[in-house]
Design goal:
The complex is a heterotrimer of chains A (about 280), B (about 775) and C (about 80).
Chain A lengths: L4 H6 L1 H4 L5 H10 L1 E5 L5 H11 L3 E5 L24 H12 L4 E5 L8 H6 L3 E4 L4 H14 L3 E7 L2 E7 L7 H4 L19 H20 L8 E6 L4 E6 L42
Parallel strand pairs in A: 1-2, 1-4, 2-3, 4-5
Antiparallel strand pairs in A: 5-6, 6-7, 7-8
Chain B lengths: L11 H16 L5 H8 L4 E3 L6 E5 L5 E2 L1 H13 L4 E4 L5 E6 L4 H10 L16 E2 L14 H11 L14 E4 L13 E8 L2 E8 L11 E8 L3 H15 L10 H8 L1 H18 L22 E3 L6 E4 L5 E6 L5 E3 H14 L5 E3 L5 E7 L3 H9 L14 E3 L13 H14 L4 H5 L3 E4 L13 E10 L2 E10 L12 E7 L3 H15 L6 H8 L1 H9 L35 H24 L2 H13 L12 H13 L9 H11 L10 H16 L31 E5 L7 H11 L6 E7 L2 H12 L3 E7 L4 E7 L3
Chain C lengths: L1 E4 L2 E4 L6 H7 L8 E5 L2 E3 L14 E6 L15
Parallel strand pairs in C: 1-5
Antiparallel strand pairs in C: 1-2, 3-4, 3-5
The chains are: A alpha/beta (about 280), B alpha+beta (about 775), C mainly beta (about 80).
């Protein structure tokens, strides 16, 4: 592949890196990354991967843009309220870089479509915000045999890990099943400093880029834990769990399923949050 | 006036003794010339073009000389066989044609009268210049002369003043008209009084030379007491930051370009604070007389009706200064002695001065004494007062004595001056012209700062070399940002007198009263003059006008033969590049015709291009082919597989008409080899490939290359950082290991950054060549 | 005895189980935490019966969503 003059200019700062060069940029341009969830994590990841020239970026989200999103989901603007998130995501990504292909999936990732969608890509970024989805992504990537980056944020902390299925520690090695229905975050627990999404989403995008370029050490077999208040990063080594239901010695999960969603507070009695009209 | 302007270092006598023993070891053969060169040059001793002849450059701080010093210089000249002294554009006095064995004694004699040649050359603090009208000019703020002395006194003794990354030139001007060119020195001070206190504007980072640049204003005003600290602070910064590895980019102005002003000023202030804590004192020069010369004009030249002598009216009523015109800065020892005596008799400052225009000046002469002085001057062999066109000319030594010189600048200057004198151009017009001529692109003649600047070059026409000059116009140095002259065209040397005549006549026709040529240039614009110059640019054929193929002052056809080492032969590179370009063009046509004859037209310049570096410059095809084989194939510089091609060429010359048919590919590959080799050529005209005869035939350790390395090219002129590096990287990615890539880059950041970045990525930068046209060619070998 | 919890040193009494430790450390929702002890994940069901030893390195790994915590539509945010 020959880079055009404009591409040489656009990606010059990549090409300058000894570890990247023109060849590396060509790898990015040929790369395909799926971002599940155009929300807090998916936003920065999508924007940076678009800027980097990842040739094909898929984005999965069934939601429309909501005011509560705008505190951290920087892919979307106030003018986008009510617009499907994948649409405003695509608009923004292609505005940064018309060079790339953005494929939108305005739907939920479910057991019946996950593997099909994921198969088209080289790397998956889990930008979902709920546990059932996270387990689905973990399982689907295992079955589709695609590496992925998991991340989560909560209040002032974030975590991330990269998984190469069957080779490195997977999500279920650490969290072997969704939390039981009764154990649900109280309202204040659902709060998060918006910018944490930026930090973790960018870390995910970094992992995707490294994977496509084939450079550096991926964040495997260790969980990166970020405490924004103390501005501390820790890595916790997590080995593959022989009892992991997905990738252990005797796996118990042989197919994908849509996990039961944990129920939050009873909307009848809880007055912590005013439900939005519609939707 | 004191007899001693400043104190010389206490250990100078000892230093001369040390130097004396070094001379001994050199003369006996014990010390190699290269090692000795590093000893003599910082002491101001230069080798002349003629073997065995040396020149001693005596520093004259502020241009001031006492009569005793003048006489001693004259005595030295007479005693040691040099009957000619020369005043330089930096106000030094040069003693030419002396033997090396005499130089220690010369230095002792200089020392006895408070003079030294230390720092006359090399990577040292050079002579500190000052405007020659300091102390007498109506326009000056105050007399800067003692400051030049103070800085000299402080800096010379320092060990660190003799081994800087490159030369360090300092200059003082008494006002913003900047007659001493402070704005184009490494460090320049322009006097300015503020609230009744003496002080200076400080410029730094300027310089002439093959890459000229005006300095930047680094301090809007500093009190005079800071002068010595600033000079030392900049010296230290230069010492620390100058690029010692790359001689071409070692001058202070490149540090400046790399750092930019804010960072440099920061660093400077830091060092000045260090100096204050080290206890470097305030400069103790007292300035009794601070003027407010608002609106005062520059000192004016008048003519004395009685004696016909021209003089300058000093600001001190009743006193005049007499400029003495030395033809191109030369004067006999005898005349120099007489002038020294005359100055003792007539000058109330008991001495005289050297000037930047290679002349002398006697000041503080009582106006009433003018006639008597004029008649004394008549006793000189040289007519120093008669107006002559030559006064408008400053010329460097040129190829007559300088190994770097391409052309004989002085002879060109004389030829032009004669033509002007013979013409009907009025003296007033001539006096408003100033022409500076350098024999090569290095600006020893300061061709960038005159209203007409000329520098020597060589053109090739139909296989022959023609001595030529590039013409520069439009310098303005009296403005806050100095503007250097720009290229306006190029003419053969023999066309110069007629060109200058045309320029002078054009000027005379439309000149306003009292107008200088530089203002006239601004009125008319560059295009007006380009047209005039263009008319003189053509080179007639050898048969029509063989004189065009000989330089002024030479009876032989112009040639670059006999060039050896020495400093960068700037013009030589251009000639080689031209040959290679010509070969490429010829090859291109040959490729379509496939005829032997056309092939030969491409092969010949390819073979000829680099012969200059081996001292060979021939017109004869057989000689060229022979010399190429001897100097390049036999030595292994070019792979021996090309012997076949050379044999064919020989056969072609001997009558075998088809010898070169279809040989385009091989000729192309030979040309590529030549060009790659050219890329490795350094400033000493040495190549950087192994020169071993057997290197291609047998090699136990290194693998033999199957084919010569391909040389790709990349033209990145006008491409800024970092895009240029990006493109080089991308190009290299598409090449094989050990392939060569020749890249043309702009001067400045590109050539400073790209080679270093390539090296840091493990690529081999085989060489960097200054093309002397604002661009550089670097050759990279792909290693990774 | 001395153990390390989340990279920091801590002194605890003898006979402390992982469940106890979660209580001691004020972990409000122990069901949202996975525990790694000396490099190995501890089965949730065994939290109450796994007793700590001196020099143990314990990591609490929290379940973290994406910032919504759960579906927006009918839940608290």
């Amino acid at each position: 592949m020959q880079l055009t003059e404009e591409q040489i200019e656009r990606y010059s700062r990549h090409i300058l890196l000894p570890e990247v060069g023109g060849k590396g940029q060509e790898k990015l341009l040929a790369g395909r990354v799926l971002i599940v969830g155009a929300g807090g994590l998916g936003s920065p990841a999508g924007l940076y991967l678009a800027a980097a020239g990842v040739g094909k970026i898929g984005i999965v989200d069934s939601d429309v843009v909501d005011l509560t999103n705008l505190q951290r989901q920087i892919m979307h603007e106030t003018a986008d309220l009510g617009v499907p998130k994948v649409n405003s995501a695509m608009t923004r990504m292609r505005a940064i870089n018309p060079d790339i292909e953005v494929r939108v999936y305005p739907k939920k990732l479910m057991a019946d479509n996950a593997v099909d969608i994921i198969s088209d890509y080289d790397f998956v970024i889990d930008g979902t915000d709920n546990f059932p989805a996270k387990f689905l992504v973990a399982d689907a990537c295992h079955f589709a045999d695609k590496p992925y980056s998991h991340a989560g944020i909560l209040r002032f902390t974030g975590q991330a890990i990269t998984v190469i299925p069957r080779k490195t520690t997977c999500y279920r090695c650490i969290f072997n099943a969704p939390p039981p229905p009764g154990a649900v975050p109280s309202c204040s627990q659902a709060g998060v400093l918006g910018v944490l999404a930026g930090v973790m989403g960018c870390i995910q995008a970094t992992e995707a880029a490294k994977y496509l370029l084939g450079i550096g050490e991926l964040l495997t077999d260790r969980l990166l834990v970020y405490d924004a208040l103390s501005m501390g990063f820790r890595t916790v080594n997590v080995a593959r769990n022989r009892k992991c239901p997905l990738c252990g010695d005797s796996p118990t999960i042989s197919r994908l399923q849509d996990e039961e969603r944990p129920i939050a507070c009873d909307p009848e009695t809880c007055d912590c949050y005013q439900n939005e009209p519609g939707n | 006036m004191t007899t001693e302007f400043y104190k010389l270092p206490a250990d100078l006598a000892q230093d001369i003794d040390t130097y004396g023993s070094e001379v001994g070891r050199f003369s006996s053969g014990e010390m190699p010339p290269g090692v000795f060169k590093a000893k003599r040059v910082p002491r101001g001793v230069y080798e002349q073009r003629q073997d065995g002849a040396y020149m001693v450059r005596v520093r004259v701080a502020g241009g001031t000389l006492t009569p005793e010093q003048g006489e001693t210089l004259a005595d030295i000249g007479s005693a040691f066989g040099s009957h000619q002294l020369h005043i330089t554009t930096r106000q030094d006095v040069q003693i030419h044609d002396v033997k090396i064995e005499h130089t220690p004694e010369i230095m002792r004699r200089l020392l006895s009268v408070g003079l030294t040649s230390k720092g006359g050359g090399g990577n040292t603090v050079r002579n500190v210049a000052a405007c020659p009208y300091a102390g007498i000019c109506p326009a000056e703020e105050f007399d800067v002369t003692p400051f030049a002395h103070a800085v000299t006194e402080f800096l010379i003794p320092l060990v660190g003043s003799s081994n800087l990354p490159r030369k360090y030139k300092i200059s003082f001007s008494g006002c913003g008209l900047d007659c001493a060119l402070a704005r184009v020195n490494d460090l320049g001070f322009i006097a300015k009084a503020k609230d009744g206190k003496p002080g200076f504007l400080v410029y730094a980072g300027g310089g002439l030379g093959a890459h000229s640049r005006p300095g930047d204003l680094i301090e809007e005003w500093v009190p005079a007491t800071d002068v010595v600290r600033i000079a030392e602070a900049i010296r230290r910064l230069f010492d620390q930051l100058g690029d010692r590895k790359n001689r071409q980019r070692a001058r202070l102005r490149f540090v400046f370009e790399r750092m930019g002003m804010p960072a440099f000023r920061n660093a400077l202030h830091g060092v000045i604070r260090e100096l204050e804590t080290e206890g470097i004192q305030d400069c103790a020069v007292s300035v009794p007389d601070i003027r407010s010369p608002a609106g005062a004009s520059l000192i004016r030249r008048e003519t004395d009706s009685a004696s016909g002598v021209r003089f300058l009216e000093q600001r001190q009523a009743g006193h005049v200064a007499l400029p003495l015109h030395l033809p191109l800065g030369f004067i006999s020892a005898e005349d120099f002695r007489k002038i020294s005596r005359i100055s003792r008799e007539f000058s109330q400052e008991n001495g005289f001065r050297t000037t930047r225009s290679q002349n002398l000046i006697i000041r503080f002469v009582a106006k009433d004494d003018l006639a008597a002085l004029a008649s004394k001057l008549k006793g000189l062999k040289c007519d120093v007062v008669k107006p002559a066109a030559l006064e408008s000319f400053v010329a460097c030594a040129g190829a007559a004595t300088c190994r770097l010189g391409l052309c004989l600048a002085r002879d060109a200057a004389r030829a032009c001056a004669e033509a002007l004198d013979r013409s009907s151009i009025t003296p007033a017009v001539l006096a408003s012209l100033d022409v500076n001529i350098s024999g090569c692109p290095n600006a020893c003649g300061q061709h960038h700062v005159a209203s007409i600047g000329l520098f020597g070059a060589a053109q090739r026409t139909a296989g022959r070399l023609v001595p030529s000059y590039r013409v520069l116009l439009g310098a303005r140095c009296d403005t806050p940002t100095a503007r250097l002259a720009e290229l306006a065209g190029s003419v053969p040397a023999r066309a110069l007198p007629q060109l200058l005549l045309d320029l002078a006549q054009d000027f005379e026709k439309d000149r306003l009263a009292g107008e200088w040529f530089s203002s006239y240039f601004e009125r008319c614009g560059m295009e007006h003059f380009k047209a005039i110059i263009e008319r003189h640019a053509t080179v007639p054929s050898y048969d029509e006008r063989p004189a065009f193929y000989r330089d002024w002052g030479s009876d032989d056809d112009f040639s670059l033969a006999g060039r050896g080492g020495g400093e960068c032969g700037a013009g030589v590179f251009e000639v080689i590049a031209d040959d290679i370009a010509g070969a490429k063009r010829a090859l291109h046509s040959a490729q379509s015709s496939s005829e032997s004859a056309d092939m030969f037209e491409a092969l010949l310049p390819a073979a000829r291009a680099l012969l200059i570096t081996r001292g060979v410059d021939s017109q004869n095809a057989t000689d060229i082919i022979q010399a190429f084989e001897k100097h390049f194939i036999d030595t292994g510089l070019v792979p021996s597989e090309f012997r076949g091609l050379i044999s064919r060429a020989r056969g072609y010359l001997e009558g075998w008409r088809e010898a070169l048919e279809g040989q385009a590919d091989d000729i192309g590959r030979l040309l590529a080899e030549v060009e790659a080799l050219f890329g490795t050529l350094d400033a000493n005209l040495n190549f950087h490939r192994a020169e071993s005869a057997a290197s291609n035939e047998t090699s136990a350790s290194a693998p033999v290359r199957e084919k010569p390395a391909a040389v790709a090219e990349l033209d990145l002129r006008g491409v800024t950082c970092p895009m240029n590096f990006v493109k080089v990287k991308l190009k290299l990615e598409s090449m094989e290991t050990d392939d060569l890539l020749a890249v043309v880059l702009d001067d400045g950041e590109p050539v400073q950054n790209v080679p270093a970045s390539l090296r840091s990525e493990g690529q081999e930068v085989v060489d960097t060549v200054d093309l002397n046209n604002g661009h550089w060619r670097i050759t990279v070998r792909k290693k990774k | 005895m001395n153990i390390t919890v989340n990279g920091e040193s801590a002194d605890i009494a003898e006979q402390v189980s992982i469940s106890d430790l979660l209580t001691i450390r004020n972990v409000k929702m122990p069901d949202m935490v996975s525990v790694e002890r000396n490099g190995e994940m501890v089965d949730r069901s065994a939290f109450g019966e796994t007793f700590l030893a001196g020099g143990d390195k314990i990591e609490f790994l929290y379940f973290m969503g994406g910032g919504n915590g759960s579906e927006r539509t009918t839940r608290c945010n």
